[in-house]
């Protein structure tokens, strides 16, 4: 796994978009290998012979997602989780740094409001489109990584990484990028109150609500923003600390997955007292959101009545 990560890290650190794409696919393939179990291919019967290409397509193994409770028994997942504990092999940090470079590559192409000759316009549209695809791929990988290794969420308690997600919500980004960034933002804040406080301190609520009120924002993105606000207004609970950073890895496989969120506070160096100080009540968050959005009370009431995240919080 170290050899694969080395290749992927070298590729996503490149300025060559082809190498970046290859590196992101390598990471995606590694995550797919961990999360999916390959099924047996179905042999074609002699009475239904087809041409070679059709047979090869028909015999592709069927892959199904592994159950969360069984991940702890997977040796590849154990090795992946172990490697993520060290800075050298942490994939989230590398993908986030790659995402920052991709944003810089987009902004360095000039002011889109300036007139371009026809050929330059076509080149810019083509280049920006390819760059957007790479950004979406990086965001997809980042979301999966944060779900597979929750302690990595703590990097978004740092200003540089939280600001990266907020930059992706700017109006000049395409709706697909805005929606994907909102999903990553939810994953980054999940069960990590210190990240939520960083989000608030960096005017994240202003950024999100401005996107919601912007007339140019698509309805689909506005729906994603509304879902995010429901998530933000959920009551927070302190994350219990454990005795040592490596405790979860020595638990029985059935308990490994359940220990993820409990370990996030230990990895970041927070004790239980410090974690409780990061907690804000639902009323406090409601008042903060009311500075930027009207009728927040209706959102809270709807959240309490419908309980859309009840299964997640339980």
TrEMBL record:
KW Cell division (keyword) present: yes
Keyword Metal-binding part of the UniProt annotation: no
Pfam family, any one: CDC14
One GO BP annotation of this record: cell division
Annotated segments matching region Disordered: 38-66, 262-283
Domain of life where this protein originates: Eukaryota
UniProt cross-references to InterPro entries, sorted A to Z: ARM-type_fold, Cell_div_Cdc14
Key words of the record: Cell cycle, Cell division
Matching PANTHER family: CELL DIVISION CONTROL PROTEIN 14
The protein's name: Cell division control 14, SIN component
The organism of origin for this protein: Melanomma pulvis-pyrius CBS 109.77
């Amino acid at each position: 796994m170290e050899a694969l990560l080395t290749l992927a890290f070298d590729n996503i650190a490149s300025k060559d978009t082809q190498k970046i794409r290859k590196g992101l696919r390598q990471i995606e393939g590694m995550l797919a290998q961990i999360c999916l179990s390959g099924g047996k291919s179905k042999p074609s019967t002699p009475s239904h012979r087809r041409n070679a290409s059709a047979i090869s397509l028909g015999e592709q193994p069927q892959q199904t997602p592994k159950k969360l409770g069984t991940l702890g028994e997977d040796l590849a997942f154990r090795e992946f989780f172990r490697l993520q504990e060290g800075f050298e092999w942490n994939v989230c940090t590398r993908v986030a740094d790659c995402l920052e470079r991709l944003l810089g590559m987009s902004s360095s192409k000039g002011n889109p409001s300036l007139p371009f000759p026809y050929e330059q316009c076509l080149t810019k549209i083509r280049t920006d489109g390819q760059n957007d695809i790479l950004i979406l791929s990086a965001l997809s990988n980042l979301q999966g990584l944060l779900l597979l290794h929750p302690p990595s969420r703590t990097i978004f308690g740092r200003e540089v990484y939280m600001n990266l997600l907020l930059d992706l919500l700017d109006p000049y980004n395409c709706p697909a990028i805005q929606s994907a960034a909102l999903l990553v933002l939810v994953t980054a804040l999940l069960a990590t109150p210190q990240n939520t406080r960083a989000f608030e301190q960096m005017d994240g609520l202003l950024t999100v609500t401005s996107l919601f009120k912007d007339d140019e924002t698509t309805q689909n993105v506005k729906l994603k923003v509304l879902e995010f606000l429901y998530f933000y207004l959920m009551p927070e609970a302190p994350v219990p600390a454990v005795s040592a950073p490596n405790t979860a890895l020595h638990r029985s496989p059935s308990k490994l997955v359940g220990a993820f969120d409990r370990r996030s506070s230990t990895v970041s160096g927070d004790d239980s007292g410090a974690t409780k100080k990061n907690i804000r009540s639902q009323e406090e968050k409601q008042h903060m959101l009311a500075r930027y959005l009207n009728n927040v009370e209706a959102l809270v009431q709807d959240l309490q009545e419908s309980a859309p995240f009840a299964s997640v919080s339980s």
